[in-house]
Amino acid sequence: MKNLFFIFKSAIDDFSRNKMRTFLTSLGILIGVFAVVVLIALGLGLKKYISDQFEAMGKDTIFLVPGKILSGGGFSGSASSFTGTFDNRDIETLKKVNNVVSVAPIALKSTKINGLLKEDFSDIMFSSESLLDVMGLEVDVGRFFDRSDVSKRAKVVVIGGKIAKDYYGNAEEAIGKKITVDDVKFTIIGVLKSKGGGGMGGPDYDSYLYGPYTTGFIFNPDKKFFRLSVKTVNENYVPQVKEDIKKEFLKRYKEEEFSIIEPTELLSAITSIFNVLNLILVAIAAISLVVGGIGIMNIMYVTVSDRIKEIGIRRAIGARKSDILSQFLAEAVLLSSIGGILGLGLAYLAVLSVQNLFPAYIDLTSVLLALGISSAIGITFGVFPARKAANLEPVEAIRYE
């Protein structure tokens, strides 16, 4: 233990005499560890965000979309875009399926909207009163449109929190006000709680307007929907309901013309794709760790050359080859560990700074991986210079100029 203490104390003393060289040598490891840990943290955050979004939809929900979008646990790429395919007849078919609680047809229109404070483009989603439960939405102020609004084709809308703030100042001010959608005036009856979204190219639900699907026929004369959402009695009925829906829809459509999807299936497909992408990104970031390791090896060779006489004197007064090997190996490990710890610290600060916007987080595995990799690099790239130092002959080393 005493010998180990002396080895590390000697290494620290040498680093303190060459502070700039120590920092620059550790910089490669610092950048590599920072990049790897941040990417892992962002990946964990994204998986949590996606999981939370699907969890809000509930495990008792089923989606019907045009085309075949899932195949073998992944995306097949054969979906027939988001053009309307389904109609009122399909809604009525779904309502008759056993253990179906509610059906939410969805039609989406990108349009110009005009409010009290601004005019801009946004999206309005037309659906049934069941959308609130199906999508895990919550009303902040006012109310959501009900079955009566749907049957009367009422010109009412519920708006996202961002729309309320941007167009009316706040949620309370928006209630009861008029908002114009492509020259058609709607009355705002409710404002939703913030749901988030909009990142990674996803939908920003806080910037949407929501109205009865029957009212939406003003803009959707063909009365078509690009998605149908079905809520079952509970998640235990989902497999049977899927089979029953498939039988009914095959009476009207070919099998490749529609997909019946559970949120868990979609989540699994998205996660599998993301895991591959994240692995590639982390592998690319890890290249800088290799570069940093090569930098440490180069500096350690320089250090050996600078201290040949010292090595010769130590060997002459009794130091063994293993002592010299341990000394220089410890210096390489300490250099890479310093870079690893600094990189981990910077990664923590970076993740902390984005947590208000995105649920990124650093787990214990990332910490152990960062410190383990940095130490392993020190050992791997430090062993060659250390062996060179240990194999020097004492007499030749003392006479070295």
Can you offer a commentary on this structure?
It is built from 13 helices and twelve strands. It is of the alpha+beta class and 401 residues long. The protein folds into two domains: 2-52 and 270-398, no CATH class; 60-261, no CATH class. The protein has a six-stranded mixed β-barrel with strand order 4-5-10-7-9-8. Strands 2-3 form a two-stranded antiparallel ribbon. Helix 1 (2-17) crosses helix 11 (321-354), helix 2 runs antiparallel to helix 9 (263-306) and helix 2 (19-57) packs across helix 11. The longest helix has 44 residues, at 263-306. The relative contact order is 0.18. Mean pLDDT is 81; it is low at 74-83.
Name the poorly predicted regions.
74-83
Terminal-residue CA separation: 34 Å
Helices, by number, come to 13
Number of β-strand runs: 12
What level of helicity do the residues show? 40-55%
Give the SSE order as H and E letters: HHEEEHEEHEHEHHEEEEHEHHHHH
* Tally of separate domains: 2
Shape: elongated
Proportion of β residues? 15-25%
Give me the secondary-structure category.
alpha+beta
Quick check: average pLDDT? 81
Briefly characterize the structure.
The chain has 401 residues and is an alpha+beta fold. Helices cover 54% and strands 19% of the residues.
